[in-house]
Write a structure and sequence with these properties.
This protein has 14 helices and two strands. With 296 residues, the chain is an all-alpha fold. It folds into two domains: 4-57, no CATH class; 82-295, Rhomboid-like (Rhomboid-like fold).
Length: 296
């Protein structure tokens, strides 16, 4: 039972609907709002007036992103980059488990990738093509893991709300696949671990899409350039995966851009990305055996 003082206090009721009791506040103006007036934000909810003000303050690039990429569909769930968080959590858990005493060898051996796993008749190893993606889950050491997860968190905060969760996850996985394909093409006998190829694909996609929307891409270009050079000059880094992930990430970004202009956008981007994956698999199935055979 409520007291007369409770009913007399307007802060206990929605400011737009005084007859509706609520205890939820707009995170921006701190006024009470009922469920009908709540719009999910990255943290908490905001009222309709604050939502309108937020939309008016968007930059031209943000408005174009809303129109072309359907970013409004993300606001219904708050626009939080949940796929980024899930990838961070799963990858970190597996990689941290990998670093425990006695587990590095078994876990690394079970999940790492080398082109030789695709050609059992030539290498004598079992045929295990899933390693092209499981290698994204394991890392060489804590520094390797920390740098990759930091980069993923930085780019995922921007790219996932822009693309949507399905496109972002697809971009991540296909870019990682591209990194593994590049390793199999360039150095099929070299084992590799890490999510670097996928993350390079995300960075390049952010640059391609950001340029298309008229955004400022200088910062992303600088970070990408530093990491490319670092991978080339420091021994032990699989620069081949970086190149493969970057090239495939750019191709997927171009697919997204062109598909967004068509009436059946979802049909087009799914079909074109599936075709790209098929091409990658065909190439990796044909070219490295020729290279290995020629070497013998």
């Amino acid at each position: 039972m409520t007291t007369p003082e409770f009913h007399a206090n307007p802060d206990n009721f929605c400011y737009r609907h005084p007859g509706r009791q609520s205890f939820v506040l707009c995170q921006r103006c701190m006024r009470t709002i009922c469920p009908e007036c709540q719009t999910q934000a990255p943290v908490g909810v905001i009222c309709p007036e604050c939502m309108q003000e937020q939309r008016r303050s968007r930059t031209p690039a943000q408005r174009r992103a809303d129109r072309r990429w359907g970013a409004r569909s993300m606001t219904a769930v708050g626009g939080r980059p949940l796929i980024t968080y899930w990838i961070l959590g799963i990858t970190s858990a597996v990689s941290l488990l990998q670093q425990l005493p006695g587990l590095f060898g078994p876990i690394t051996g079970a999940l790492q990738f080398a082109g030789a796993y695709l050609y059992p008749s030539l290498s004598g190893l079992p045929f295990e093509p899933w390693r092209m993606l499981t290698a994204l889950l394991v890392h060489g050491n804590f520094i390797h893991l920390g740098l990759n997860m930091l980069a993923l968190w930085m780019v995922g905060q921007q790219l996932e709300p822009l693309l949507g969760r399905a496109k972002f996850l697809t971009l991540y996985l296909v870019s990682g696949l591209g990194g593994s394909v590049a390793m199999a093409l360039i150095d099929p006998t070299q084992p590799t671990v890490g999510a670097s190829g996928a993350i390079f694909g995300l960075f390049v996609a952010l640059i391609v899409i950001g340029r298309h929307l008229g955004g400022n891409i200088i910062g992303a270009l600088v970070v990408l350039g530093i990491n490319f050079v670092y991978g080339l000059i420091v021994p032990g880094i699989a620069w081949e995966a970086h190149v493969g992930g970057a090239v495939v990430g750019a191709l997927v970004a171009l697919i997204y851009i062109n598909a967004s202009r068509r009436r059946s956008a979802r049909f087009w981007w799914i079909g074109l990305v599936a075709a790209l994956v098929l091409v990658l698999l065909v190439v990796v199935a044909i070219v490295p055996p020729l290279i290995i055979t020629a070497g013998h």
